[in-house]
Each structure stands twice: as C-alpha cells, then as structure tokens.
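Morning, I've got a small favour to ask if you have a moment. It would help a lot if you went through both lines with me. I owe you a coffee for this, so here goes:
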Amino acid sequence: MIVSLIATLMAHPETREELFRLLVDQVGPTRAEHGCIDYNLHIDASDPCVFVFYENWESQADLDAHMKMPHLEPLLSQIDRLLAKPIEMWRLQPAELAATG
C-alpha cells in the first residue's frame, strides 16, 4: 500500500538559509530512490521559516530505507540545532480506505 506523508520543519530564523539548502539538496537524490513516487518540498507562504514535505512511497519498507540514506546525514546530524521545534509528521491514508462508521 502507498505510504503518504506530510512533514513540517520550522527553522530558527538564523538557521533558515542553511536548513533550506540542506532540504533542497536532498530532493533530487530522494526522488531517485527506489519506491519514491514523489517528494515535494514547499515553503509556507506566510512564514519562510516553515518548510513542508509532501511525499508518497510505494511501501513502508521504501520509506524506512529512505530514512537510512547517506544523503540525509547532513540534515539529520544537525536537526536539533537547525529546527525551532520538533518535526511534525502526518501519515495519511486514502479516504476510501478509512473505516466508515
């Protein structure tokens, strides 16, 4: 089953440009990964320190493999310093798969 995620990252104002460069640098390599359907980086229109990823993976195993990729290391090794708060993440499922009640 397809795994869909939305992840929100908020930079400190003083680390915004550094975080932005690190995030942009991982888009290309991630899109080339096995199982990546799409991987899109957005910036909040009202707050340039807020970045949002919308991503779809063919399986949970593909997403798990992504999280271990070496191109994520420059970001993950500095995440506490770069972010103003912890990453917020939502795992989504198609509405037609949701239980009706």
